[in-house]
Design goal:
Elements (H helix, E strand, L loop, with lengths): L6 E4 L1 H14 L3 H21 L7 E4 L1 H5 L5 E2 L1
Parallel strand pairs: 1-2
Antiparallel strand pairs: 2-3
Helix pairs in contact: 1-2
Length: 74
């Protein structure tokens, strides 16, 4: 993830959920980028709050699309 050395694992349902969100709003890349950034922000905040935890992976699912705070960070 960005510069943290964390692997992002997005399951197929996450990707489908993001695509559905894009289709509802617009088909532009700016919209897609904004949606993905909004979904990653809570995980990034968690990483910054706990720099000593040694996180290695972030798992995103369809639940993350509905609730950006619903992710698995380990």
């Amino acid at each position: 993830m960005r510069d943290y050395g964390i692997d992002i694992i997005a399951d197929e349902e996450f990707i489908d959920g993001v695509i559905d969100s894009i289709d509802k709003k617009s088909k532009g890349m700016r919209v897609a980028n904004g949606i993905v950034t909004r979904l990653l922000n809570p995980a990034e905040k968690e990483i910054l709050r706990n720099p000593d935890k040694g996180y290695k992976r972030l798992v995103l699912t369809k639940k993350t699309v509905a609730n950006p705070k619903d992710f698995d960070l380990s």
